[in-house]
UniProtKB/TrEMBL annotation:
Cell compartment(s), UniProt: Cell membrane
Residue intervals passing through the bilayer: 95-114, 126-148, 169-188, 194-218, 248-272, 284-305, 389-407, 419-444
Keywords assigned: Cell membrane, Membrane, Sugar transport, Symport, Transmembrane, Transmembrane helix, Transport
Species assigned in the record: Paucilactobacillus vaccinostercus DSM 20634
Lineage top rank: taxon: Bacteria
Protein name in UniProt: Sugar transporter
GO molecular function, one term: symporter activity
GO term, biological process aspect, one: carbohydrate transport
InterPro entries referenced in this protein's UniProt entry, alphabetically: MFS_2, MFS_trans_sf, Na/Gal_symport, Na/Gal_symport_CS
Keyword Translocase assigned: no
CC annotations in GO: plasma membrane
Length: 475
């Protein structure tokens, strides 16, 4: 009887209801445009702003990223725990209110990071630490709920892949606009200090507006019932369940590799264009074509996941990425070759980036199936904890390497410094893309067939009242 029930539930899961409209998907994508308008300023330009405008030593500036991102990682876990155990869920839902209320503080804190007062070096460094750590904390309060929403928006596996692709499209559209539009604003002003401030204010305003649009047009279709006050033992049980969630552990590990490589490349490309190509306008071309190429992979991802496991599409993306960056190390000596080879690398990265959010939603189901505990916020924040660690690495390593190879701001660089910049741009990411292939191939346990069986098991458990229903579809 049990097998028949599971088979029936599996069949039901294959045709699970599609709960999202096109408007919902666009709104979720626009939300990540706003996230990237606010977040990518730090990843793209803050290190360069610290070293070349504020006058902070390279190693000290890199350490700001290391400390702030480690702080952010723990902030993500704290926010995820808080969200999962809220007892005052109102009509706006479990996750949506955070997107609404955190937007303006987030925009103001971003501006503060690019308006360093004329203090001593020690004072400037202290300002950098405080402003960036506060920004990261506020970003956690906004972004952890935003990313945790997918399991409450749809249970359809294919629709989750589509939603993840829309989100990645929004993310990369925001990144592309930030890459193309930021520096022209900076250079159009009388001096770069004023230019940085004006540019960041423009992107902060549009970032807030995008987040509000997203809030108004997305919906929690499987709303969470209000919980009673949670005991410390229940919270501990939730943390123990995370450590037994093998798919989550694997996806979190490979994101240390892929996300640190991606963010390090974003931080270093400013230096690569300025000192190796001697063409600062190359960064705008790089943003338009290479990040634009991600849209191709985002469009292809749902098509590929209809025929192949998400795991294999993920590995394919890393293989394309690794080959392109190895070639880039040897041949990216002109703007054309840099843009061409980086575009191919970003095509591969687009598959991994688009699938991350779908894989994490699958990890939520796996965790509930394995432990009986469903915790979207905690699972997502655990994942972003490792992404923040990767960002810490991506911000710290360039500062240390630049200091080690003798980088001098706004000067002609030595051959050693130029080789250091080239290695950071290409070799680091190629090596980690190859490492990701190995980890996903040998350690990631979820196939589409197994995932459908897990969801079917959960359906049967709920029907048999072995687990209390977590959600009820809203009208």
């Amino acid at each position: 009887m049990e097998n028949r029930e599971v088979a029936a539930a599996t069949a039901k899961n294959d045709v699970a209801p599609r709960t999202l409209t096109f408007k919902n998907k666009i709104a979720y994508a626009v939300g990540d445009v706003g996230n990237n308008f606010l977040f990518d300023m730090g990843q793209l330009y803050l290190l360069n702003y610290f070293t070349d405008q504020v006058g902070l030593p390279s190693a000290a500036a890199g350490t700001v990223f290391l400390v702030a991102k480690i702080w952010d990682a723990f902030a993500d876990i704290s926010v995820g725990t808080w969200i999962d155990n809220r007892t005052n869920i109102g009509k706006r839902g479990k996750f949506r209110p955070f997107i609404l209320w955190a937007a303006i503080p987030l925009g103001m804190l971003l501006i503060a990071n690019f308006t360093t007062p004329n203090f001593s070096v020690t004072g400037k460094l202290l300002w950098a630490y405080i402003a960036y750590m506060l920004f990261g904390t506020c970003y956690s309060i906004s972004n952890v709920p935003f990313g945790s929403m997918i399991p409450t928006m749809t249970r359809n596996s294919q629709e989750r892949s589509e939603l993840a692709s829309y989100r990645q499209a929004g993310s990369n559209f925001g990144l592309m606009l930030a890459t193309i539009g930021f520096m022209p604003i900076v250079t159009a002003l009388p001096n770069k200090n004023i230019g940085y401030t004006v540019a960041v204010v423009v992107f902060a305003i549009f970032g807030v507006l995008c987040q509000w649009f997203s809030y108004a047009n997305i919906k929690e279709n499987y709303p969470t019932p209000v919980k009673k006050k949670v005991s410390k033992e229940e919270i501990k049980a939730s943390y123990r369940a995370l450590l037994k969630n093998k798919p989550l552990l694997v996806v979190s590990l490979v994101n240390i590799f892929t996300f640190s490589a991606f963010n390090l490349k974003l931080a270093v490309q400013v230096y690569y264009c300025q000192y190796i190509l001697k063409n600062t306008t190359a960064e705008s071309w790089l943003g338009f074509f290479s990040i634009g190429m991600v849209f191709v992979s985002v469009a292809l991802t749902p098509l590929l996941t209809k025929k192949f496991d998400k795991k294999m599409v993920y590995i394919l993306g890393c293989a394309i990425w690794a080959v392109a960056d190895i070639l880039g190390f040897f041949f990216a000596n002109s703007t054309f070759m840099l843009v061409f080879l980086t575009s191919i690398a970003y095509l591969g990265d687009g598959f991994t980036s688009a699938l991350n959010w779908a894989l994490i939603s699958d990890c939520v189901e796996y965790g509930e199936w394995q432990s009986g505990i469903r915790s979207e916020g905690l699972v997502y924040s655990f994942f972003t904890y490792f992404r923040k660690l990767s960002q810490a690495i991506a911000g710290f390593i360039p500062g240390i390497v630049l200091a080690w190879v003798g980088y001098v701001p706004n000067a002609t660089q030595t051959a050693t410094a130029l080789m250091g910049i080239r290695g950071l741009m290409f070799i680091y990411s190629a090596v980690l893309a190859v490492a990701t292939i190995g980890v996903m191939l040998w350690l990631y346990p979820l196939t589409e067939k197994r995932y459908k069986k897990i969801v079917a098991d959960l359906t049967v458990r709920r029907q048999n009242k072995q687990l209390a229903p977590e959600y009820v579809v809203s009208d």
